[in-house]
Amino acid sequence: MKRSISKSLGSIIALSIALTSCKKEDTYTYSVGNPTVTVESEYEAAFFGDSLTFSVQVADNEIPLSTVKAQLYYTDDMVSETIIRTKENGQYTGKIYVPFYKNVPNGTATLKFVVQNISKKTAEQDIDLELSRPDYPYLTLVTADGEYQMDKVGPNQYEATDAFPLSVKAYIKAPKFGVNGNALTFGWVNNEIVLGSTTDIPFSYSSPGMYPISFNTLTFEGSPFITPTINGTSFSRLDDEHFQVDIELTEGEEITIEGFEDLASWWIDSDFFTDNGSGNLSFNAMTGKYRITADITAKYFAVEVMNGSELARLNADGTGTIWIIGDGIGKPSVHTNQIGWNPGKALSMAPKGNKTYQVTLVGDKTAYKDYLNFKFFHQKDWGGEFNNNSISTGSDIIFVGNGPNGRDPGNIGLLAGKELEEDGIYIITIDLSGGNDNAVLTMTKQ
């Protein structure tokens, strides 16, 4: 019987120290016994996505067994493993999954069976396994409104052509293929199509009508994905519901937005855009750089002033922008998107030139009729802010808080007995021509 012994470097050093100090024991690792493994199931070929049943006969007539492992290797990488505890000699069965990865070509994998006894001595048997991608006769496009068959149009390529709307949210199903196959799904995770998800993929086209939706089972690439644009500049996808672009805009220029469904029903922010009623927009804030975020769920474009690659703040000379944080105000609706005291949702006021800034309140729409409690800040965060010593107003509708008058210093409130008319339009302007510490707030009802 063979025994291998391993001494650690620490034990060797301890042995020399023991001549003048206390004695320490050596550390031994044993590898004994005679484990054997015989694969009884025979596989020469399989498909990606299969679950393979295996049967092995294992034994060790000297010491007890510990485990038997089935391992699948793509080249040198182990991609799947099944571990079975072995209490005694005999036959054991199990399943091992053949991963369905993207961009892995057909080829030869290695199926390895490893038996191990309690002394960690092992024996193994390797089997070459020819793997290929399933040649599905069809796939299924699953939408909330129904299912569409995706026919095979080329190697690993599938399409469904129908009268689709501008955007289609769907995931894809692949049927079981072969004797050992599994039904698979493909969905949307982190802005890409992945295996195992049923989260809807946001397919989109330039216009509603007849067009194909396609998917490739090798590359996991799908189409179409039409990128929305503003004045020819593409938005970037933040997630399924939000697109964003940083763009230079010129006061008075015509705005062309393409790639969003039912754009005529979107809420248009009058602080930044003029809508002539026929679907054409023009930009009505100062010429400069802006970040525009399209919110597909809320159906509106949030506009924020930029300074280079960063969000703008109020500069010492009164240029830049002013931010609003607080209660009673929110775009496109205070009822669904109130800012609250969350600086991440702060509103950027529209710069109108000559160090003046504007925000429009619509009664019971973008502002509560009977409650306002918001404040003006120098940045989209806590820090610089306007208090009652730096901003004043002569309005007969709203007031600036000073603490004793019912609002914290600088907070805006409605005067006693006042409220905004339902659908009434009120334009708030802040003029900093007298300096940042001498801001003048006016409120005009249209």
Q: Can you tell me the residue ranges where pLDDT is under 50 for at least 5 consecutive residues? A: 1-28
What is the straight-line distance between the termini? Answer: 100 Å
Report the average pLDDT across residues. 91
How many helices?
2
Number of strands: 38
Specify the structural class: mainly beta
Number of domain modules: 5
Name the shape in a single word: elongated
Architecture of the largest domain, CATH level 2? Sandwich
Tell me the radius of gyration: 34 Å
CATH class of the largest domain: Mainly Beta
Strand content: over 45%
Walk me through the topology:
Layout: H1 9-17, E1 36-39, E2 45-47, E3 51-59, E4 65-74, E5 77-85, E6 90-97, E7 107-117, E8 122-132, E9 138-143, E10 146-154, E11 157-164, E12 167-174, E13 184-189, E14 192-195, E15 201-204, E16 209-216, E17 222-223, E18 229-230, E19 233-234, E20 236-239, E21 242-249, E22 254-255, E23 257-258, E24 273-275, E25 281-283, E26 288-295, E27 300-307, E28 310-311, E29 323-327, H2 334-337, E30 347-348, E31 350-353, E32 356-362, E33 373-377, E34 391-393, E35 398-400, E36 412-414, E37 425-431, E38 439-445
What features would you describe in this structure?
With 446 residues, this protein is mainly β. The protein has five domains: 1-30, no CATH class; 36-132, Sandwich (Immunoglobulin-like); 139-223, no CATH class; 227-309, no CATH class; 312-446, Immunoglobulin-like (Sandwich). The chain contains two helices and 38 strands. Strands 9, 10, 11, 12, 13, 14, 15, 16 and 17 form a nine-stranded antiparallel sheet that branches. The N and C termini lie far apart (100 Å).
